[in-house]
Structures are given as C-alpha cells and as structure tokens.
Amino acid sequence: MLLSVGEGRYEIELRVYPIGSERLFVITSAKEGHIGAVTIREKTGLQSIGRQGHRDDVVSERVAEMLHAGLGEDITVVCGIHIDHATKEEIALLVANAQQCAIQYMEENHE
Q1: What distance in Å separates the CA atoms of residue 89 and residue 109, rounded to the nearest whole number?
Q2: CB-CB contact of 79 with 65 (8 Å)
Q3: Per-residue pLDDT tens for 15-47?
Q4: Which CATH architecture has domain 2-109?
Q5: What is the pLDDT of residue 32?
Q6: Domain-wise residue ranges, the chain
Q7: Which CA distances in Å does 102 have to 18, 27, 51, 69, 91?
Q8: What is the band of 110 on the pLDDT scale with cuts at 50, 70, 90?
C-alpha cells in the first residue's frame, strides 16, 4: 500500500508492508528518500536507532507512537526524509505530512 501527502519537495510517501501478523511502515520523501532511522514501538516501550547526522528519528518516533496508539499493535517504522537546507517551517511541514499519512492509513485500515 502507498499513501502520499504534500506536493513537490514536501511530498511524503508512506508504504506499508505486512510481515506475518505485523506491519512495517516506511516513510520517505517522494523525490529523494533514504534510510535515516528505524523505530520499534512495542507494548513495553519505544526503541530507535538513527544514522549519525540525521534527525529522521524525530519523525519515526512520532509516527510509531501514533500508529501504536491508533492500531493497538506493535509497530516498526523506517524513515528517511531529505530536503537540502530545510528551514524550521519546512521541517514542520514535512513532519505534519508524515503524520497525516499515518492518520490516513489508520482511517482506511482500522479494524
């Protein structure tokens, strides 16, 4: 499944991969993605690992928390969003777009 929110350099894509009874969520820039962070959210807590010099864990953690609360299951999120020289306002827009992708997914797939 693929969802996207935003336009141009602010477009964020969310891909969902079922793996057994679990789901892997991948959040990237539509134009230029990478692997910047991985977050696992389980009943017992949250764990993240991020690449040095990247801040993708901010998005992966927020989205993992949202999905865990909304779906009631353990969640793994891989995130890589890239924009050269992004301002604070641009970063806020990218985070909001990633969160909106998660909201759309939950609205369409909540049992």
Answers
A1: 30
A2: no
A3: 999 998 889 999 999 888 889 999 999 999 999
A4: 2-Layer Sandwich (3.30)
A5: 80
A6: 2-109
A7: 15, 9, 23, 11, 17
A8: low
Percent of the chain with pLDDT over 70: 98
Q: What is the DSSP string of 29-96?
A: ESSSEEEEEEEEEETTEEEEEE-TT--HHHHHHHHHHHHHHHH-S-EEEEEEE--TT--HHHHHHHHH
Alpha-carbon distance 79 to 58, whole Å? 9
- The single-letter code of the amino acid at 61 is E
So what's the pLDDT on residue 55? 85
Cβ neighbourhood burial of 7 (10 Å; 0-12, 13-18, 19+): exposed
| Contact yes or no for 37/76 (Cβ under 8 A) | no
